């Protein structure tokens, strides 16, 4: 039987650099635990968790699917985390669903850029980790080098539990330092699948040099062994290190044992939500996947309470009640239907039609209110600012503003409706994708987090929905604002059929300066006191529609306007004038005012962190200077330098390739949106000329 006791559950993720062998490791875990019949390789692209075809082609994992399997007495839920920098948001979401993680490293490459980024995120969420040094069979594989790399780059304290027997081609097994046993995988034939391995105690008759190594390594492990290792891991004071080669089928079973022995059960991670909701249901929808037969499938992590099919649940984010029809466990070989599921589990819900990735699901309004009350009480107890209701909307992740966009067109107009449907589905799965329609050209615009993000969406539309779309050039999401205040009046006088529409509007626009906050200062609308009193609510709505529509497209380049305050000074309408005409007059007047107020382009400026060896520092600095970069700080971290800088996004296109060339691949970097900043006149003119050339 497939049991579900909370303390025997392990919700874990595998974090890794793109080529460290994460997918192969997952595949082997499923194989040895009896859920897949044949071994798959990423190299052949037929692995279980990479369930989107295009990931197979790229060999990278983007869709965080969850897979469930049993190992010995434990239920393991493996949550797949993407290993690419453009998918920070997915990683962030996955980390709230995990209780522990396995970091897979290429033993010949040590800690690579991507791992560093994800590791920092894991630290931020206090997720306990185990390290698996994979690819021990590669020529350059080295335990010593990898351990040094973990100490230096991750600033972690490695607790070495195994040492390899042989390395490179002669890697045949491991020595377990706790039990003092050696495990060897005999290779009789090519078809050896690694299921059978031999475990025996070390004895004096073995290679004396090996014995000496093992004795020394073991002496260093004076800690009170397994219990101690577990305590240290859960407190994040150390990370157990294991080694193996998934591709050669070595070392995966002991890794599974270590997951159950050292990583936390759900009740050992103290999620606030559990305290606040107590026995009431609280769950996070961490992934929505569209299934052609069953409609949207929602992956959930249950933090507290119990989930049952056929019961109504409240989605806090959408503030609506939904009923799920079925509840399934996502076992690797098949989805198994179940009558109810308790806290700590991962499940698949069928029938939740409105739920979007990142939403929080509870049993009722009353339970959410009770939880808010407990949270507030606790916060008052800690003398914090009054408890904010927002903190209860569970583990939803803040979705950042997209910084890149491009137009997308169907092959023929007859496919436009299909494309719209595909984009609606994709937005539910991926909240960091925004879709809008350009009011001038009528084109559909995709807005995303990075170059790869948009490229992959394009791929998925082709594969999953069978639409060959055309993408316009990738563009930076600029914004616009104004330089000075300006008062303008405009009159619209139009006869349509029998009716004469006549309206006169006066507005004053002025810039709101808020340089302190990195978030975009939104625009506001105020009224002259007398005007406000004399306008009826529907007239006011029409005026605000006119103002807001003019904010969508700035006067210079048609980018969204921000940081503008508009004051409505007077509105006079002849009887019989329609509200639509009033809105039209207001937006025409606004456009005139914004044009006269002097346009200013704001560009997204990214904060950049580059970790690089001292020998490459000057060339990296020189390159940043050419990209209009501003250096904020240079810190030392052991023998490498950490460079903190800001640079305009427009100058950072293709930076990863450039950095690789400059440093022979020995630097890592991360980019995120810092602030929208005014462009200087010279750069702004260059941009305007370039855009005029494009148009």
TrEMBL record:
GO terms for molecular function: GTP binding; GTPase activity. It catalyses: GTP + H2O = GDP + phosphate + H(+). InterPro entries: EFG_II, EFG_III, EFG_III/V, EFG_V, EFG_V-like, EFTu-like_2, G_TR_CS, P-loop_NTPase. SMART domains: EFG_C, EFG_IV. GO terms for biological process: mitochondrial translation; ribosome disassembly. Residues 7-267 form the Tr-type G domain. Pfam families: EFG_C, EFG_III, EFG_IV, GTP_EFTU, GTP_EFTU_D2. The keyword GTP-binding applies. GO terms for cellular component: mitochondrial matrix. Keywords: GTP-binding, Hydrolase, Mitochondrion, Nucleotide-binding, Protein biosynthesis. The keyword Coiled coil does not apply. This is Elongation factor G2. The gene is GFM2.
């Amino acid at each position: 039987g497939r049991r579900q006791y909370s303390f025997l559950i392990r919700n874990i993720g595998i974090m890794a650099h793109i080529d460290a062998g994460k997918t192969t490791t997952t595949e082997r875990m499923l194989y040895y635990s009896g859920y897949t019949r044949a071994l798959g390789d990423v190299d052949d692209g037929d692995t279980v968790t990479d369930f989107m075809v295009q990931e197979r082609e790229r060999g990278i994992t983007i869709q965080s699917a969850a897979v469930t399997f049993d190992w010995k007495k434990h239920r393991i839920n493996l949550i797949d985390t993407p290993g690419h920098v453009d998918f920070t948001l997915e990683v962030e979401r996955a980390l709230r669903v995990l209780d522990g993680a396995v970091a897979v490293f290429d033993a010949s490459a040590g800690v690579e850029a991507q791992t560093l980024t994800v590791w920092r995120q894991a630290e931020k969420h206090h997720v306990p980790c185990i390290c698996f040094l994979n690819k021990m069979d590669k020529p350059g594989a080295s335990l010593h080098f990898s351990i040094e790399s973990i100490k230096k780059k991750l600033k972690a304290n490695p607790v070495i539990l195994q040492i390899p027997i042989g390395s490179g081609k002669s890697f045949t097994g491991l020595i377990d330092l706790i039990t003092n046993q050696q495990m060897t995988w005999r290779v009789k034939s090519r078809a050896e699948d690694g299921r059978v391995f031999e475990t025996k105690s070390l004895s004096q008759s073995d290679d004396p040099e090996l014995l000496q190594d093992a004795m020394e390594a073991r002496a260093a492990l004076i800690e009170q062994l397994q219990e101690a290792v577990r305590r240290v891991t859960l407190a994040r004071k150390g990370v157990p290190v294991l080694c193996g080669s998934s591709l050669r089928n070595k070392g995966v079973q002991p890794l599974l044992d270590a997951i159950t022995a050292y990583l936390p059960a759900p009740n050992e991670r103290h999620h606030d939500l559990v305290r606040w909701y107590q026995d009431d249901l609280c769950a996070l929808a961490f992934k929505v996947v569209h299934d052609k037969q069953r409609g949207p499938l929602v992956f959930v992590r249950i933090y507290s309470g119990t989930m049952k099919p056929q019961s109504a649940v409240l989605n806090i984010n959408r503030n609506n009640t939904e009923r799920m029809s079925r509840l399934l466990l996502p076992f690797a070989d098949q989805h198994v239907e179940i009558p109810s599921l308790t806290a700590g589990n991962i499940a698949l819900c069928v029938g939740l039609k409105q739920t979007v990735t990142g939403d929080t699901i509870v049993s009722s309004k009353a339970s959410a209110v009770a939880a808010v009350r407990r949270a507030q009480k606790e916060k008052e107890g800690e003398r914090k600012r009054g408890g904010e209701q927002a903190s209860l909307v569970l583990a939803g992740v803040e979705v950042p503003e997209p910084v890149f966009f491009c137009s997308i067109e169907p092959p023929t107009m007859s496919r436009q409706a299909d494309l719209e449907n595909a984009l609606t589905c994709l937005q539910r799965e991926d909240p960091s994708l925004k879709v809008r329609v350009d009011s001038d050209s009528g084109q559909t615009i995709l807005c995303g987090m990075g170059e790869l993000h948009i490229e992959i969406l394009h791929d998925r539309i082709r594969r999953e929905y069978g639409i060959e779309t055309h993408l316009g050039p990738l563009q930076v999401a600029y914004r616009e604002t104004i330089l000075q205040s300006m008062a303008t009046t405009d009159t619209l006088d139009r006869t349509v059929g029998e009716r004469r529409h006549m309206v006169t509007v006066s507005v004053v626009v002025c810039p709101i300066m808020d340089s302190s906050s990195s978030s975009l200062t939104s625009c506001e609308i105020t009224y002259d006191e007398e005007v406000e009193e004399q306008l009826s609510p529907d007239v006011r709505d029409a005026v605000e529609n006119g103002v807001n529509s003019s904010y969508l497209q700035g006067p210079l380049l048609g980018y969204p306007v921000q940081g503008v305050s508009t004051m409505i000074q007077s509105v006079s309408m002849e009887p019989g004038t329609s509200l639509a005409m009033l809105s039209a007059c207001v937006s025409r007047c606004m456009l005139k005012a914004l044009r006269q107020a002097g346009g200013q382009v704001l560009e997204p400026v990214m904060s950049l962190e580059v970790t690089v060896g001292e020998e490459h520092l000057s060339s990296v600095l020189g390159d940043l200077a050419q990209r209009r970069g501003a250096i904020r700080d240079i810190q030392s971290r052991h023998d490498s330098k950490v460079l903190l800088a800001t640079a305009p996004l427009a100058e950072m296109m293709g930076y990863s390739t450039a950095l690789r060339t400059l440093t022979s691949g020995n630097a890592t970097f991360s980019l995120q949106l810092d602030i929208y900043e005014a462009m200087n006149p010279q750069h702004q003119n260059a941009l305007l000329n370039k855009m005029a050339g494009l148009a």
